[in-house]
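I'll show a sample.
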Amino acid sequence: MIESTESTKPERRVSTPLVLALASGMVCIGIGAMVLSGGPEAPETALPPINSATLDDSTAHRAAESFVDAWRKRDHGVAAALTIEEAAETVQRRHIEDEAMSAHERELKTQVWDAMAAERLRIEVQSEEEVPRGTGEGSDVALETIARGTFVGSPYEREVSLVLRETTEGWRVVRFEFGEILTQLPSKLRLEDD
């Protein structure tokens, strides 16, 4: 018969409350150290939110491009700042519709639409002409453009017509109309014919 060489001393255990208290203390120390050090290091250049558009109203072309990009990204603040009259009313209606979304719909919009519209759209002016406003009221500028960029990782081109007016604040969109999409949409976005 072989005798056991193990000690018959009772095992020493640390109580559960003591373990929890020690773990909580370590977490508190870690949080305190992070707060005192100024938090995690911020990246050297902070990126703007995906759905933000840049407002440039220095020329008719730049204002048109800024507006088209803001409309696509649903950046209602920039779109509203770049519009007057009929265009401003259209932007306001769209903003009200977006605000009426449920929390769930808004979350889906954030996850899906913002990712789809992440890249800035650029416009290429196809034609430009002065459009008289009325007797002695001056003229506006009508632009026929093609908006270019990507949509869900695929090339995207769409016709856009805009009428712009120079104001004391800068160039503003008076009217706009989105025309034909000139590129084929990804199959996941195409609806089947009935």
The longest strand covers residues 154-167.
